[in-house]
Amino acid sequence: AQKITQTQPGMFVQEKEAVTLDCTYDTSDQSYGLFWYKQPSSGEMIFLIYQGSYDEQNATEGRYSLNFQKARKSANLVISASQLGDSAMYFCAMREPHRRALTFGSGTRLQVQP
Amino acid sequence: NAGVTQTPKFQVLKTGQSMTLQCAQDMNHNSMYWYRQDPGMGLRLIYYSASEGTTDKGEVPNGYNVSRLNKREFSLRLESAAPSQTSVYFCASSVTYEQFFGPGTRLTVL
Q1: Residue B30: phi, psi to the nearest 5?
Q2: Interface mutation target, options A104, A106, A108, chain B, most CBs of B under 10 Å
């Protein structure tokens, strides 16, 4: 089974609207971390937001928030007030305590339309 | 403060050639990583190093070797390149939960 599943290969959103990018994960650990990264067409990986499994509140960073539903094992990224510069690939990733590295999903390509 | 740097940015090899991808970080991080990203996919871990002098295999280590030369540098070597190793290679480092990525090396093996 995939550790990280992103079921939306591509998404469109109108400028200034909000969009939710889905991510579900699979782990038997109680302690883990969930991440979202943005990869623009230039190719670099940009860290957006982090959620620890024991964090009681959903993480927020500016226009980004993470909708963390532990029982459902989902960690959806919400981008509010989309901007043209938000057009990029978005990757969900997980870090488990026994593995120092990240496990990535296959990504969602977001296109913001004017 | 340059963060994580990688050289070269682009490389074209012929099948069977060897090369070393260089990575350096100036953030005094203990952990360093090498990932590869194939078209339409997320990053997959090749090797990682928890500290100077230690390395461990990741998800896709076959065909690669690594060297953690010191705390700053972590190199990835392809001894005999194959077309299946055509990919974008990312180096990363971390001290806590956040991983900082280099700009990537785009490698094509003909």
Answers
A1: -80, -40
A2: A104
